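# step 3/5: fold
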Amino acid sequence: MIPTDAISLVPRVAEELGLDEHLVKSLVENYWHKIRKSMVNLDSPYLGIRNLGQFHMMRFKVQSRLKTFESLVEKFPDHGLYYHKERNIQMVNKLRRILREMDASDVQRKKKRDMRYGVYAEQE
């Protein structure tokens, strides 16, 4: 299978479905815009894309970004850029929440694995 980008498929899909090319293009752009927005907003540590798969954030990347935003909040505490400070604080909170979700998921996954192989039952 030769990988193709979504925009190059627009003319073929429009012709196959009998739709206007601009309509198909706007649907494709809107779909990928929502996916990018979900990634940027840090809604969840996981992103599932139908017929493509589920993607997970890397813990070290989240921790690295968290350190960056924490240092920005500490470095520029009372400058006149209140909007940027608030945005950075929001990012710190989102990244901390994502790390908590990742930790909870790891614990749950470990319990399932241990239950499956009998390790968890032996410890109790």
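# step 4/5: annotate
The mean pLDDT is 81.
# step 5/5: archive (pending)
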